[in-house]
Specification:
Length: about 475
């Protein structure tokens, strides 16, 4: 897509001829997309400039810029004045919030036409922006008309030799469209007239020098854009700086070449037409402009949402960690209680084992004791039997007056003594020892009483109820 170029002829006698979209000026031909002759009416201007389509594109967020270029008195302001009233009612019929601003560049100074103040140019986000430019938000056509008239009233107009109502400044009318995420502009640029210096009064020379200088730089920018030169010298003038965003290829551009076709202006017409032809070579790729500020706000808002979500997750994590910590504490307490219980159980088991060992030992002792008891009882019984036998024998012997210490008794207790008395004493000692060993338990039925010595140094002992003295 290229810059759309339109040639518009001001009414008047002329030698310029039109063949389809070719303009013949003197010996040269110039091709345009559309040529509007001197008879063109306002509605035909609307169609010729394709305004309906420009407005549609604007409503889709694509910026538009219409330049009116030409020598002084060629009908630039006339064209702009026809154009803007046709745009006003329709531009409000969009999804955008519309605000309106007007600025002019006069002697390289930028002036706010709605607030009458000089503005500074600031380089921001790769663009030149007039600082503090007044933008009035408009909701009705009447508001827009009022502002438009106010701006025109403030515009610096000077009478000079060539045009009694010549505008000596470049003027940029801008409709700003803004949605939450898109911003676009519809710019109408009424350039100051190019003229030859020798045709101007001396006191207006400074104005003309500045105008011609800025138009020269604009021509240079357009030449470089057409030739696809990498470095475009936008910074050389306020005009080219401000038009950078319109000419950077992302906006749709319409160039209206206004021609005053009278005979003494034919060379000027050739220069202007040549300018249009050059502009027609510029390649454009119009696209929607994201509102960087809004985009940043949106991104920041999204970041806030993300951070809030992360915060929530972190809070939940902390909560569950605390819960876990508490659970762990409870678990630890339970574990220590369980450990204590286990230790107690182990202690009890240890004690139990000791007790069982003791029990086992006691059982073994009991078993040994019962065996010993059994053995003692047997021995006791044996002894009783022997004592009974002794008693019988002794009583028999006593009856028969026989010596009770007979040798045959000793045979009965073989190995336990050499005589009856020794045998009895040994047995008594043995039973004593057993009594001491087994805690004086009366496990023995001791029928034999201890021997004692009497005053006559007689020893006696008793067996059962009997007493023996010797
Ligand atoms: N198409 C047209 N039909 C009728 N009159 C026109 C037309 N174009 C321009 N004129 C008249 O020509 C005169 C100069 O036009 P205009 O002021 O628009 O020129 P200009 O290019 O803006 O000049 P300057 O650059 O000096 O401001 C005005 O009186 C205007 O009414």
């Amino acid at each position: 897509m290229k810059v759309f170029t339109v040639a518009r002829l001001k009414p008047g006698e002329t030698k310029i001829t039109i063949e389809k979209n070719q303009l013949r000026i003197l010996d040269k031909s110039y091709e345009f997309d559309v040529i509007l002759d001197e008879q063109t009416q306002q509605d035909e201007l609307y169609v010729g400039l394709n305004i309906g389509q420009l407005l549609e594109q604007f409503k889709n967020g694509i910026s538009q810029v219409v330049f009116c270029y030409g020598q002084t008195g060629s009908g630039k302001t006339y064209t702009v004045n026809q154009l803007i009233p046709m745009i006003l009612p329709q531009i409000l019929e969009s999804k955008f919030e519309i605000s309106f601003s007007v600025l002019q560049i006069y002697n390289e100074k930028i002036l706010d036409m709605l607030y009458k103040q000089q503005l500074k140019l600031r380089y921001k986000n790769n663009e030149f922006v007039p600082e503090n430019l007044t933008k009035f938000i408009c909701h009705s056509q009447e508001e827009l008309v009022k502002l438009y008239n106010k701006a025109n009233k403030n515009r610096i107009i000077n009478s000079h030799q060539l045009n009694d109502f010549s505008s000596r400044s470049h003027c940029i009318y801008t409709f700003h469209g803004q949605t939450t995420d898109l911003q676009c502009e519809f710019n109408i640029v009424d350039l100051a007239g190019s003229e030859r210096l020798n045709q101007t009064k001396v006191q207006q020379i400074q104005e003309s020098v500045e105008i011609n200088k800025s138009l020269f730089y604009l021509r240079q920018v357009i030449q470089n854009l057409a030739d696809k030169v990498q470095q475009i010298p936008y910074r050389q003038s306020k005009l080219t700086s401000l038009l950078k965003k319109s000419l950077n290829g992302k906006s749709n551009v319409v160039m209206v070449i206004c021609l005053n076709p009278s005979d003494d202006n034919l060379l000027q017409c050739q220069q202007s037409a040549q300018y249009g032809v050059k502009a027609r070579q510029i390649i454009l790729q119009p696209e929607q402009q994201q509102d960087d500020q809004q985009r940043q706000i949106r991104e920041l808002k999204q970041q806030i949402v993300n951070l809030e979500q992360q915060l929530k997750i972190a809070q939940n994590t902390i909560k569950s960690l605390k819960q876990n910590q508490q659970n762990q504490l409870v678990q630890q307490q339970q574990n220590s209680i369980q450990m204590e219980q286990i230790n107690q159980i182990n202690n009890l088991l240890g004690q139990n084992k000791k007790l069982r060992d003791q029990m086992q030992h006691i059982n073994e002792q009991n078993f040994a004791l019962s065996q010993l008891n059994h053995q003692m009882q047997n021995e006791n019984q044996d002894l009783r039997d022997k004592i009974n036998i002794f008693e019988e024998i002794i009583s028999e012997d006593l009856k028969k007056n026989k010596d009770p210490f007979r040798k045959d008794w000793v045979e009965l207790f073989q190995g336990e003594g050499s005589n009856y008395l020794e045998i009895i004493i040994n047995k008594l000692q043995y039973y004593k020892q057993l009594q001491v060993k087994y805690n004086n338990e009366k496990i023995l039925l001791n029928p034999i009483h201890q021997t004692v010595k009497n005053s006559r140094n007689q020893r006696s002992f008793s067996i059962g109820k009997r007493e023996f003295k010797f």
